[in-house]
Amino acid sequence: MSTPVSVIVPATTANLGPGFDCLGAALTLYNRFHFTALDQPADTVAIAVNGLEADRVVTDGSNLAYKAFAYFYQQQGLAVPAVAIAIDLEVPLARGLGSSSTAIVGGLLGANALSDRPLDQTALVEMAIAIEGHPDNVVPALVGGCQLAVTHADGTSTLCSIPWHADITPVVAVPDFELSTAEARRVLPPTYSRADAIFNTAHLGLLLRGLESGRGDWLQKALSDRIHQPYRQALIPGYEVVAAAAAAAGAYGLVISGAGPTLLTLAPAAQSAAVGQAMVVAWAEVGQSAQAHELALETTGAQIAQA
Prior knowledge:
single chain; Ribosomal Protein S5, domain 2; Alpha-Beta Plaits; four-stranded antiparallel beta sheet; globular
């Protein structure tokens, strides 16, 4: 029987303003997945979940980590082995911090490890993107850092690691309400104007240079977006109030993390604590409770260890 393995997968924040569906960063918040092969019939699964909101996670074959685990074997024409999966949750569910991507990456890496790692990172990245449908969360969850993922006409992807200045601190404020990705996508228009496309292209370029250089004046302008945030803000009560409070406390800017409702600021390290507190207070003033986390860029990505 295979040796049990554990997979540690970081949370992610995607889009970063103008980087819609192509830019994401791994953060120092983690979910952990523990896999043990069972001497039982194929397709048998036993799942236990602990930690944050554990009671809301399904524990049958529809569990996303298990579906990714099974997908790995199915893509290679192999029977899905019996497995026990223990999940320890730290990443909030349905809040825009990549909880589903941690499950996909955890399931794929767990399967790869139990099958003696037949696939390299490139193949695992492509498999994760195929499951998720877009790369901006699963790629940084798998490889770490801030990643620009470019999807080509033939369906393949090119990954580009984006330098991140040491003084830029990501601060997230996580509210106590949810926003589904499907709902957040429904409010987006089917087409955009040439002006909006040019605006986002230019601001994404400025953002990449701002992240590398740490120039706050560039970041303050670069986080603007016309593709998704103007349409999603209405789904997040208190957005404008929280954004104003973060700016007053010293943040370079505020964006919707992933599909939301978590809000992400980039702030100088010296102001990060004040920014987080200001966001929580501002949300409380409009009747919403939230928790702030001062995080860092997670540069390692998903890791495998013996369980």
